[in-house]
Amino acid sequence: METLTLLAQGFAVALTPDNLIWSIIGVTLGTAIGVLPGIGPATTVAILMPLTVGLPPVSAFIMFAGIYYGAQYGGSTTSILLNTPGEAGSMMTAVDGNAMARRGRGAQALATAAIGSFVAGTIGTIGLTFAAPLLVEIALKLTAPDYFALMVLSLATVTTMLSNPTGGGSIAFGIASLFFGLLLGTVGLDPQTGQARFAFGVPELLDGIDTVVVAVGLFAIGETLYMAATDGGKADSMHKLRGSFWMSREDWSRSWKPWLRGALIGFPIGAIPAGGSEIPTVLSYTLEKKLSKKPEEFGLGAIEGVAGPEAANNASAAGALSPLLALGLPTSSTAAVMLAAFQQYGLRPGPLLFESNSSLIWGLIASLYIGNVFLLVLNLPMVGVWVRLLSLPKPWLYGGILVLSSLGVYSLNGNAVDLVILWIIGMVGFVMRVIGVPIVPCVLGLILGPLIEQQLRRSLAISQGDWTVFVTHPVSAFLLLVALAFVATPIISSLRKPKPQSAVGMTR
Amino acid sequence: MTFTRRTALTALAAGSLLAVAPAQAQTIRSLDITVPGGPGSGLDQAARGIEEALRAEGINAVKVNNVPGGGGMIAISQFVTTKEGNRNAVVVQGAGTVFFPLTNKTPVTLADVRPLARLAGEYEVIAVRHDSDVKDFKDLMARFKANPGSVAWGGGSPGSTENIFFARLAKIAGMTPKQVNFIPHPNTGEVVVSALNGQATVVGGGLQDFKTQIEAKKLRLLAVASPERLPDADAPTLRELGYEVVFANWRGVSVHKSLDDKSANALADLFAKLVKSAHWKKILNDRGWLDLYLPEQPYQAFIADETRQAREILTELGLATQ
Amino acid sequence: MSAHRLPGTLFGSAVAALGVAVVVASQQIKTGFTYDVVGPAMFSNLIGIGLVLSGIASVINARRASLEDLPDQPKLNLWPVGLISAALLLEAALISRLGWIPVVATVFVAGTYAFGDRRILSNALIGLVLATVILLVFTLGLGIDLPLGPLEPLFQNDQ
Asked: Containing H/E element for A119?
């Protein structure tokens, strides 16, 4: 097959000693920066891009490939260990990953994330090699109603996350959290008409509230405040490692299917323009919870809840490269930065580049495989080192979290208003923890709300007010039905079950 | 991408002192550029272009500050407060910087700085999917006039460049701006997607945005909004087609209002020389930008004119504040 | 109303009040765009209504809950929260004037103090070193400018 020949040539390019070194450097730097909370892959690639100036294009891109995948890996480390997701794609990992870390199973969480990322990255890169142009053709058949339905489906899966696994919350709390997130999402300029909403004349709010600020605020700051309020007096360390370091047989058997499923969800959705990495991770998490034999573990440290979303995240990163390489279309902010990198060299990715500069493109793809391997080799042994981080005494650990959170948030835009918002959201997160309100629905609302709104209004503008569009487009209709099923099943099942407490409640 | 601050910190770290260049009457030896956009944005690219060209001319002390957000107004606000009397500071702006305050109440606007020179930019172009059954521009406008809602016009942010551009086309065709079914997108990638998946009947943007797709025969140009035909675009100008519209996504620089004429003129001379330099021309060529140089007076007149026209249209669209 | 119901009730009421505020604020949003049948106000109205309903539901749930339903409420010590909050707000207020290093070091010290570590001086030193390392790595190595505060004028290059 011609593709295999081209791929082989790509490997020939990528496997030269020089390029291997660039790959290792890229991978290491990408992971190092990606580890910092609040600094996600897009920022990482943007930051490190200047370092590649002066390199021959092939080497530069091989380094980029390393940085790109490395940044995805790095994000999961802070999510799991410090409950500080670097970007929205790592958020679901933080939920069960950090729970595992608290129970002394941080090493296993990191390991399953690393291996899952490797598996998914490889699957994703294979998909990129063979299926990119085809996938993109298919993806371009989707239009606004289909996107709307996909996002509604993602939001509907929130119903599985509405109750607080540690008990003591009602669904009403979860819904309130969700709507609060939706509210945060409306702050700023309305995407369809440019009207300012809830900006109160503050120019910094016109761009809306950044997801990173909310994620870091709710997860990291909220937790820091909560721990300060509850355990503050005791300057001991936490997360003592329990038992072995390695993944047990049970861990492996519970992880491998989520890895595959996560990859299969992540890659196609990553390839869809506007797919993003949040949607695949949310869908993967929900799928794993539905398929698991022990769904009640989710939220408390179920390894599937880490394996699936991490795989989905990495596969979607590979997927996002498909429209970029095949058509020159950047569909994620990270891809947009990569595009800028291409342009710096005067290259235009797209179908023509495949023909005119195929050694570069295939060298890039080959180096994705290689980078993936290096990442695994680099990260697995590091697990031991990272986990030691958790045995730092709490004061230093949380002091450090505060510093890193400030860094992550301030480096977004360089303005202090973000720090104020960070504090406000941190306080909200603190209160939510005290009362038992789940946090994830809030962040999901923030991310998905504006997307849903934009796709809805866009669909209706194009159809000139015709609401049946959502039903006449087959993909949209199908996804909406699935979404309906998600929302309806808990309601139906709770109506069927007799309520044991109701008698008591009534007589009070 | 080196910053003088970075160089200076290195010097400090090495324990040496920073030497201050002797003040010379009116020769500009360094430049401090404020960019109302993040790295990679259009305005940022313009600033980097300026930086590159200046370095090639031997002026190495160029610092670029990115101050994104607030539609560019945060940068302008910061510039006004911190660069008072600074004879080496400029702030970049573009069409969007002019339009944004017209639709949103902001504490500052472009009127709070002194526009100095327009430098470069791209003319707007109109494209359709290659296999679209819209045959040409005349066909497009005929469809629009027959059934305005059926034509979905894809472009960038609401109330900004393409929104205003399409509205002007509508007016010339005898329709009202409100009849234009404008589909906004947060970035050019999504605009291209909307063209390719057919949900936008037609899209507008800079030629560079669509070039890859045009070369790959996925998109087809209908018309360009330039005074004469563009060298690398095979499409008629709107003027040829009877629509008197010239519309560019332009970039320029401004200085602080507190500067006296001598200082401002020194900077103006710097830019006048810059745009004539061979290196600048090479940068324009590489990036596909056009030389749109205008010195201070015509530039300010241009901005005033654009603002007036945009305000009219935005009011008709119901998007203007005030 | 017994103490264990108070948090939920307060929360629910706050949410409901927020919802009402949102609906009221939404009335200010301009509508009436030709093809945009939904308009910018509809979503924010819906969100407001959603907040009101879920707030009310939370209150109802809180009142109905029996003692066994609730998790053990740990005792809350609020002054560390206040300390960290003050540090973060100070950071926001002073970061551009004083620069990255002193402000972030303060945050670090506040954090350690809030968690019971009273060794202010040594933690301040650690904080300063940490902040300086970050500054050097980011500004020198990565080109992301972190504010230098009063040291800024040293590094301006004007005439």
From this structure: helix A106-139
Give the sign of the dihedral formed by CA B207, CA B210, CA B214, CA B219: negative
A173: left (phi over 0), alpha (psi -120 to 50) or beta: alpha
Is the Cβ of C40 closer than 8 Å to some Cβ of chain A? yes
pLDDT exceeds cutoff 90 at B93: yes
Q: Which residues, including other chains, have CB under 8 Å from residue A24's CB and lie 6 or more apart? A: A66, A374
CA nearest to A73, candidates A112, A129, A22, A100: A112
CA-CA-CA-CA dihedral for C23, C25, C28, C33, to nearest 10: -50
More confident residue, A492 or A67: A67
Cβ atoms A89, A34 nearer than 8 A: no
Q: How many CB atoms lie within 10 A of CB A485?
A: 12
Across A168-182, A202-216, A271-285, C62-76, least confident range: C62-76
Measured between CB atoms, which of B9, B21, B181 is closest to C35? B181
Distance from CA of C155 to the nearest CA of A (A): 18
| Highest mean pLDDT out of A43-57, B98-112, C31-45 | B98-112
Chains with ≥3 Cβ pairs under 8 A against A? B, C
Query: Shortest Cα distance from C88 to chain B (angstroms)?
Result: 22
Do residues A456 and A465 touch, judged by C-beta distance below 8 A? no
CB contact under 8 A, B197 and A53: no
Question: Taking a C-beta distance cutoff of 8 angstroms, is the pair A191, B186 a contact?
Answer: yes
Neighboring chains of B (3 or more beta-carbon pairs < 8 A): A, C
Band of pLDDT at residue B280, cut at 50, 70 and 90: very high
Contact by Cβ (8 Å): A340, A353: no
How many angstroms away from the CA of A168 is the closest CA of chain C? 5
Taking residues C103-111, report their average pLDDT. 92
Q: For residue range A120-167, list pLDDT tens digits in order.
A: 999 999 988 888 888 888 888 889 999 999 989 988 888 777 765 554
Tell if the CB–CB gap between A406 and C18 is shorter than 8 Å.
no
What is the pLDDT averaged over residues A196-202?
A: 85
Is B54:B64 a contact under the CB 8 Å cutoff?
no
Rounded-to-10 torsion of CA A58, A61, A67, A70? -80
Are the Cβ atoms of B319 and A193 closer than 8 angstroms?
A: yes
Q: Tell me the C-alpha distance between A207 and A356, whole Å.
A: 39
What distance in Å separates the CA atoms of residue B10 and residue B13, rounded to the nearest whole number? 5
Q: What's the pLDDT at A241?
A: 57
Which residues, at least 6 apart from C88, have a Cβ–Cβ distance to it below 8 Å? A221, A402, A406, A419, A422, A423, A426, C107
> What is d(CA A319, CA A332) in angstroms, rounded to the nearest whole number?
10
pLDDT of res. A154: 87
> Under an 8 A CB cutoff, do B158 and A462 touch?
no
Q: What value does the mean pLDDT take over residues A433-447?
A: 88
Of A179, A195, A233, the CB nearest to C50: A179
Q: Tell me the whole-structure pTM to 2 decimals.
A: 0.86
What is the ipTM for the molecules in this complex?
A: 0.89
pLDDT of residue A149: 92
| C148 near B CB under 8 A | yes
A419 vs A491: CA distance, rounded Å: 40
